[in-house]
Amino acid sequence: MPSNLVVRVRATSSELQDALARVERELELPDGFAPEVVEAAVAASTAPALPDLDRTDIPFLTIDPEGSMDLDQAMHIERSADGSGGYTVHYAIADVAAFVKPGDPVDAEAHRRGETLYGAGTRIPLHPAELSEGVASLLPDQVAPALLWTIPVDADGDWHDVTVERARVRSRQRWSYVDAQKALDAGDGSAGDVLPLLREVGRLREAKEAERGGINLPIPEQEVEVVDGVFRLELREQLPVEMWNAQISLMTGMAAAAMMIEGKVGLLRTLPPPDPRDVARLHRVAKGLGIEWPRDLPYPELIRSLDRSKPAHLALAVACTRLLRGSGYADFDGTVPEQHEHSAIAAPYAHVTAPLRRLGDRYAGEVCVALSGGRPVPEWACTGLPELPSILQGADQRAHAYERAVMDLIEAGLLQGRVGEDFPGVVTSVDEKDPGRGVVLVAGIGVEAPVVAASGKLPLGTDVTVRLTRADLSSRKVEFSLG
């Protein structure tokens, strides 16, 4: 289960804000919405297409980061009524198609953007707030249209006989991850009925992930505080409830992929097996960090064995993200692509659970609700599928460039004023054309940056002491030297 790095800023400075603004200008990222897009969103918000099926009787809840308003998913879990020891998962996904029509200004702008972009405490949304943080969001006590997934899960954690249908729903309670975890840990009943069942199903699905050989790579969030121009960094481990919640989303995406493969039409999220050279590089990193990795131990099992409270193990977990490169999208209508699996999940997979934040989820969800109901897929969804991989791949590239620029900015900010200091690290890669240049991982501060040898070759996969020679916030450049 791949995870992206998340940066949250608890305090800001004009210097940081100016640097972030420069990043957004350099990458030519969107700045607000055009008036006609906002007008169309406001008009759509006044007349949503509410489904006839009323499932406001289901007491849904949401679990999201503190303060989130763009709530894509609401959940309810109950024990199976047949006494089998299984569960029924109801998963409501915001129905963006109830508000956004093919070719309207909001739809056209969503196709230009592709996905919501996240920076350091900021975000550039896919849809105007009138929709994504208003009537289309599954906010508590708001009746909203949704794609309702019903997923029976047996006592072993396997799903079967999945259905999806349009319904009006109403969430009853909004939990933050922190509050949900506190309630579960308290064990005093304050967590209600659903959260304890989420824990049970989440653990079952984690065990199934391990059986499949899937990768669970929850990278800690980096919380940055800036006071009087001084950057301070804290790492926040993802809570167990976050990972159990993610397992419900993953299960839904796997069920969606299976449904589309059987129906021979849809949009899959794909990832080829990792490059053997990247696996070999990871072995060198593990050796340099002093982590034993038997050659016959598959890398997913190594990742599951890591203790992210240890700096060296956290550094290796960050290095493992290189194995998740090469993800893409595969559209099809009639013939299932030969490469249709997601190697990190170790199964076919589709994005369907975040349509407020990802364009492709609206299309994939539309395909699934049609297939589940035995109806033809709407023409707008079928005709739009072929252009989606390039749109979404471009959006992914922008998101990764934005993420990388923000991380470079944060790393430069953390290290400014420390030029000339020595740091322990490990050389994780060496330039094939110039072996005196490469990359060093400084595990103690979680920074991976260029390093230059004063003479000779860099010692790949070896513990070294490097000196910081550059940390420039304005250019977002960090560099170390060796020897």
UniProtKB/TrEMBL annotation:
Pfam assignment, any one: RNB
Every RNB domain range: 52-374
Source organism, top-level taxon: Bacteria
SUPFAM superfamilies with a match to the protein in the record: Nucleic acid-binding proteins
Coiled coil feature spans: none
InterPro entries according to UniProt: NA-bd_OB-fold (IPR012340), RNase_II/R (IPR001900), RNase_II_C_S1 (IPR040596), RNR_Ribonuclease (IPR050180)
Protein name, UniProt field: RNB domain-containing ribonuclease
Organism: Nocardioides panacisoli
Lineage of the species this protein comes from: Bacteria, Bacillati, Actinomycetota, Actinomycetes, Propionibacteriales
